[in-house]
Amino acid sequence: xxxxxxxxxxxxxxxxxxxxxxxxxxxxxxxxxxxxxxxxxxxxxxxxxxxxxxxxxxxxxxxxxxxxxxxxxxxxxxxxxxxxxxxxxxxxxxxxxxxxxxxxxxxxxxxxxxxxxxxxxxxxxxxxxxxxxxxxxxxxxxxxxxxxxxxxxxxxxxxxxxxxxxxxxxxxxxxxxxxxxxxxxxxxxxxxxxxxxxxxxxxxxxxxxxxxxxxxxxxxxxxxxxxxxxxxxxxxxxxxxxxxxxxxxxxxxxxxxxxxxxxxxxxxxxxxxxxxxxxxxxxxxxxxxxxxxxxxxxxxxxxxxxxxxxxxxxxxxxxxxxxxxxxxxxxxxxxxxxxxxxxxxxxxxxxxxxxxxxxxxxxxxxxxxxxxxxxxxxxxxxxxxxxxxxxxxxxxxxxxxxxxxxxxxxxxxxxxxxxxxxxxxxxxxxxxxxxxxxxxxxxxxxxxxxxxxxxxxxxxxxxxxxxxxxxxxxxxxxxxxxxxxxxxxxxxxxxxxxxxxxxxxxxxxxxxxxxxxxxxxxxxxxxxxxxxxxxxxxxxxxxxxxxxxxxxxxxxxxxxxxxxxxxxxxxxxxxxxxxxxxxxxxxxxxxxxxxxxxxxxxxxxxxxxxxxxxxxxx
Length: 618
What we know:
alpha/beta, six-stranded mixed β-sheet
């Protein structure tokens, strides 16, 4: 299967390079969205030469761009952005080997930036080094996993490398997420299916492409492809033979009209209105009934394993907590026993309360005491799974070094168990997975200190990603799932809303703890609004918000947070008068020790799933 139109346009490589002017391109392409810390150390003269070269590059005066960018690199050889820009100029000049060398230098200098790998992959594609290109594009997409344009570039690399199963897997991954502007993945998936002689699936991918992009300038050609597929299917059915000749499909995108221009960032007042609206939506009283609980058994906060409702996997009469051993939270949802498992934390004047027993707490579910307490445990015994989200946008530019030092110290005091694991996400315009799950403190600290500020803030996208990552990790035994967000609470680039981010955490029973980096010494009318958003994010997921009021108080807040995390408990109980009617049930947990009340952090409630148990349940 040929993709001559895509090749004929040479993938329009500037679509995928850091210096693109395409308004619907990848978020990591913005020069301010993916910054190397090395670039912040560039001498003023090198920066001025870089800026001149960048402007010439934008004007397509490529020779002048090469000259100025070359001078910038001579002055400061570790200038990652200059190597990327110079490589882009070479790519436009079709000097592909020089372009590859510059991008390779950028990757060697700093291997944390998705745009450098993306650029390197594009140069390797131009040189027809397809396996290497696929690997580079895969690395870029692993660092920025929510960027659908990177996934689109990856499918192209996989297709050219004839890695057809990978093309199909990537296309399915993209299809499961919002992917405006990336519908073309279905074209590559269709080609991958056709290359494996599965014309039925190829036709379905083309149908999906038409459905997702009905106004494409290539609609007529896609219909022609579908006609070819249908004709070939009929021929094969009649002859009952494999095709004797290669089926050639082509899609000409050269006449496709340019995509709609992205809206410019709204004025701050409009951004504040948007954030107020999202906070109000998140904090609104829960609906009386869950609108999505009646169709099938699915994840519902508050019931069964980590508060997730599941169909019965084993219909026995004993408590699932006891069955799993050590009063494990791995309970199952059964027709005979409806169990609620809820995590909470308790502190005593800022210190973790680590010696509570079941007799020290009072639980009320739907304003009634439980029918029975089935299990109680101090969660400090559990291995920790911790996600750390660090805001690296322009709004925290002056505080990023202090944030990194405080975050590093915090992880050193929290990720201490031999089975503890943590991952780190940096967030600006894009969500960057700078370190996947690891227990190596030195490695995690190194990756944190490579973060550099720049760009906007897709904070709610990062929270949704982090919560899903914690929830989806397969575990062989019970673990504690915690998400830490260090930010000023300002979001101006997310596709997800605050409410959606909270819902993702609630589904996975992930407690979110937020630490504000706002400095109230500086007058900022949006400070209170950002802190309000952080409070809502924490309180509605069973965590808490720490608002130190200045960056100098960040270390103290993180030290207090460490106490809270290690003072978490799991209580499991059978609610009284429980019915699976989809109704929202409030939870209230109070705790006392030695005659005085403790501060408790816990979820506010859950929906009682209206789904029927799986067949065969007792």
